[in-house]
């Protein structure tokens, strides 16, 4: 079985994959225990209540009297705690940093330096983005996470530990990933260079294709139009048809690419979302016939691909909310 955990980490991404080989892989990390006001507004509208009632009125929710705000905050998870609880004593065979944006790496210091999770391989795109400590003054992110990232991409872990660093590009193969049936669809060196010029690094995201039991999952980081155009050119439309798509750029319209989604034709699109609900592209994905699920509403979502090819999609309570046979 291949099992994928799409963690509910607020505005950011964190995906944990239990590979058929038995290895563990994490793609990005974020640790948010806050609900931005725009998220609260979207959730209140979904429940048909005012923002005041959402925050202050208590009601019986899943056997406990609390407000909707408290309930949805309870669905947010700390990736380090989730990893310790679900995989006690296990190491990460592979951590993949899709691209160098802070909402995809907030929590690196906690996971590797504080919790001392053992790491074997670290994937990173070879870019020139940099920060200095004053850049983090009065912001939502922690300079310690950027420092941890800089060390990890040099192969340095806590206490003198070391790991292998891989800076691979589209189409490259090797024993570090092909034996786990992972294909690199993006980036190219050209995309990375263009990101350095523009100062926006979304299009240098790793876009990965996972395959098991004849089923396919696409995990695209924050890929936007340039990356999707590159993928459509090579490896082409036929190579990217999938059953499960993790919506790029948190399900926002900026990551939606009509031609690419037409080629992928996913049965299920999973959005790891936070902030800016008004820019979500859920309607666009639904127009392709996809079932669209969001961590905003379902909490952490898990996908199980069984060895016979059946797919179960479950919410944070382990309830099956979609099946593909």
Structural features, described:
The longest helix is centred in the first third of the chain and has 11 residues, at 37-47. 45% of the residues are buried. Helix 9 links the parallel strand 12 (244-246) and strand 13 (268-271). The model has no long low-confidence stretch (mean pLDDT 94). The strands form 3 sheets. A 9-stranded mixed beta sheet has the order 8-7-6-3-2-1-15-16-17, with no helix packed on it. It has a 6-stranded mixed beta sheet with strand order 9-10-11-12-13-14. A two-stranded antiparallel ribbon has the order 4-5. It has 2 domains: 2-34 and 76-324, 4-Layer Sandwich (Metallo-beta-lactamase, Chain A), CATH 3.60.15; 35-75, no CATH class. The chain is built from 11 helices and 17 strands. Helix content is 26%, strand content 22%. With 325 residues, the chain is of the alpha/beta class.
Spell out the key features of this protein.
325 residues; alpha/beta; Metallo-beta-lactamase, Chain A; 2 domains; nine-stranded mixed β-sheet; six-stranded mixed β-sheet; 11 helices; 17 strands; globular
Treating each run of at least 4 consecutive H or I residues as one helix, how many helices? 11
Shape, principal axes of CA atoms: globular
Sheet of most strands: 9 strands, mixed
Low-confidence runs of at least 5 consecutive residues:
none
CATH topology of the largest domain: Metallo-beta-lactamase, Chain A
* Share of helical residues: 25-40%
- Ends apart, CA distance between termini: 15 Å
Quickly give the structural class: alpha/beta
Strand content: 15-25%
